[in-house]
Amino acid sequence: MLLQIPTIISAVLKEKKFIANLVVKESISGIISDNRFGVYSSKIPSVYITHQLNVLSGNSTWLTSKIHQKILKKFNEIWVPDVISKYSLSGELSNIQSKRIHIKRIGVLSRFNSKEIQKKQDVLLLLSGVEPQRTLFENMLVKEFSNFKGNVLLVRGVLNKTEIKVPSNFTVINYLLVTELEKAIQQSNLVIARSGYSTIMDLAVLNVNVLFVPTPKQYEQEYLAEHLNKKYKIPFLNQKDFKLESINNFNKKGKFKSFKTTLPLNLFNLFQGK
Fold first, then answer.
1. Helix (H, G, I), strand (E, B), or coil: what is residue 61?
2. What is the pTM of this model?
């Protein structure tokens, strides 16, 4: 993370310069920044969207959180895609007390809508994330499910057209667009996925059986998997412990509370001076 600081600072400066020119040129009345540090202006209302007010980074969490919160103070409002703390999906990641940071919880945000669809596959392996962990996890899953009796859909989460060797009970798709992915998830008796926050929100809205396997050394994913296990009894396994027989030890009825995306439109009053 320390090695990335110069690159981050350079990107922020470029963003600020671009935004300053854009605000004047296009007469923009407001900004909504999706986790972009430099996308704001002191001349117009600026909003920052994040669930990660506290930034988990191991022993340096106190420092990364402090730096991030200092950045948040530059924005008029912070929109947190989550619900009230009692049912919070992000837990301590979005739990801070500050009079100088104006936080609004805007509810769970997902591109999906829950529907009743007949089940088609026993397991959906939904891969995502950075390399080499994506490939390492993919190879592990293919090996573990080689003797699985049911049918498996593997969505690799890659845009290239390379092929991989899989058992006969596998169907492999490199990438799915929104409508097809929504359908594939709801047609599955069990979804195995990383515990990234966007994935969590999508699966919470679809209310499906989930087993999370956080990406190793990604502190946020590891925390979220543990938090959701305590809050909703959603099962998870660390990647190093993943074995096919372990799945039978979990209660597959552990599901999220029923969530829906209901973005309050009065949020946009900020940009109208109301």
1. helix
2. 0.90
**pLDDT, position 223:** 97
Question: Count of CB atoms within 10 A of residue 96's CB?
Answer: 15
Alpha carbon of 171 to those of 122, 152, 153: distances in Å?
12, 6, 5
In angstroms, rounded to a whole number, what is the distance separating the alpha carbons of residues 91 and 59? 19
Give the number of other CB atoms < 10 A from CB of residue 227: 20
| 189 three-state secondary structure | strand
pLDDT digits (tens, 9 = 90+) for 199-233: 999 999 998 899 999 999 999 999 999 999 998 88
CA–CA gap between residue 28 and residue 106 (Å, rounded): 23
pLDDT digit string (tens) for 101-111?
999 999 999 99
The domains of the chain, with CATH numbers, are: 29-108+262-272 (no CATH), 121-249 (3.40.50.2000)
Torsion angle of the four alpha carbons 153, 154, 159, 162, in this order, in degrees rounded to the nearest 10: -110
* pLDDT, tens digit, 9 for 90 and up, residues 119-148: 999 999 999 999 999 999 999 999 999 989
How many Å apart are CA 261 and CA 263, to the nearest integer? 6
Q: What backbone torsions phi and psi does residue 203 show, to the nearest 5 degrees?
A: -70, -30
Please give the Cα distance from 46 to 131 (Å, whole number).
34
Helix (H, G, I), strand (E, B), or coil: what is residue 79? strand
31, with CB counted inside 10 A (0-12, 13-18, 19+), is buried
Q: Would you say 100 and 73 are in contact if contact means Cβ atoms under 8 Å apart?
A: yes
CA–CA separation, 235 vs 190, rounded Å? Answer: 11
Cis peptide before 235 (omega within 30 of 0): no
**3 state DSSP class of 203:** helix
The structure tokens listed for 48 are 């920052």
Q: How many other CB atoms are there within 10 angstroms of residue 193's CB atom?
A: 24
